[in-house]
Design goal:
38% of the residues lie in helices and 12% in strands. It contains eleven helices and eight strands. The strands form two sheets. A five-stranded parallel β-sheet has the order 1-2-3-4-5, sandwiched between helices. The protein has a three-stranded parallel β-sheet with strand order 6-7-8. Helix 9 (226-238) crosses helix 10 (267-277). It binds zinc ion. The site of zinc ion has 5 residues, from loops.
């Protein structure tokens, strides 16, 4: 079963933490072993700039993306889902754009950003993070940015964004909202997870939800098991999420994961559990890669290459 994963922090590990790729979770070998055809690699502006500014961090991670030993799709997507490990680039934490649409153009013209998580865990020029508990919607620059992202065919990633910002995106964005790496808040009460109402809003708009493998977002206490991932997927499917649910592993960005799901090589364990649980092959294909591929293709059709 071929897999698409909407989020990992491998470029941050490589470019900012100085980790050799062999010591990362997301390696070409692990991707091939797990059947991963498409991996979204994030430029992650987490700490407001470790090497100067968030912008400079973003540049360093973009430079590192050229050292990835897998092809990175920086132009129009092919018709067919990739057979072999392939990457696309996203942005997590809009502070690297420094409140400027010119910065957006600079990154996006060079590498084709597929999605942008508007905030990480800090307030920035765009809006407020879930962690802040802020009830404020997007800031004026955030609204201008979403308009420009629509024009460029870049998906608005609401993982990490506050709830009010999420609904603001739903109201304003023409492309469907996505949450690249978030789970169900009613199963694990973390502000980073989505409420039922938010999930329904994404389903109505045919966006995307990538289930996150971070133990703390799967289960309120204690270590998480593979069955906890199943629990979140089941809950999303029960709300009608068959066409929007997929994976957003967060590999190389998390310190705790379920047993038997510790790297991309372990995706087959999860697929087997879902199969044994009774999901059909057609449903498994949607979850495994078709749902993410569909929304990426939808965004790509708005793009004038
Ligand atoms: Zn994240």
């Amino acid at each position: 079963m071929r897999i698409a994963d909407a989020h990992c922090d491998t470029l941050y590990e490589m470019a900012i933490m100085g980790q050799p790729l062999e010591l990362c979770k997301v390696t070409p070998e692990a991707m091939a072993a797990g059947g991963v055809g498409l991996q979204t690699f994030a430029l992650f502006a987490g700490r407001k700039g470790t090497h100067g500014t968030a912008y400079q961090d973003g540049r360093d991670m973009l430079d590192a993306s050229y050292r990835l030993p897998v092809p990175v799709l920086r132009g129009a997507l092919p018709e067919a889902f990739p057979d072999a490990p392939t990457g696309v680039i996203s942005c997590e934490g809009g502070e690297m754009l420094e409140g400027s649409l010119e910065r957006l153009a600079e990154f996006d013209d060079e590498t084709r950003l597929r999605m942008i998580a508007l905030t990480w865990n800090f307030e920035n020029e765009i809006g407020y993070p879930a962690k802040s508990g802020s009830k404020a919607p997007l800031k004026p620059f955030g609204r201008a940015l979403v308009r420009e992202m629509d024009k460029r065919g870049i998906l608005t990633d609401c993982s990490h964004l506050n709830d009010a910002g999420f609904y603001d995106v739903c109201e304003r964005a023409e492309l469907p909202p996505i949450a690249s790496h978030s789970n169900c808040r009613w199963l694990c009460g973390h502000s980073r997870n989505l409420t039922r109402d938010m999930v329904k809003a994404i389903i109505e708009r045919k966006g995307y939800i990538g289930v996150n493998f971070y133990a703390n977002f799967l289960k309120a206490d204690g270590p998480a098991a593979l069955e906890d991932v199943l629990r979140h997927i089941d809950a999303l499917m029960e709300l009608g999420g068959e066409d929007v649910v997929g994976f957003g592993s967060d590999f190389d960005g998390i310190e705790a994961w379920p047993d038997h799901l510790e790297s991309p090589a372990d995706f087959p364990n999860l697929i087997q559990l879902l199969r044994d649980h009774g999901y059909t092959e057609a449903q498994l294909m949607k979850l495994a890669h078709q749902n993410l591929w569909r929304v990426l293709q939808l965004a790509d059709r708005r793009r004038a290459y």
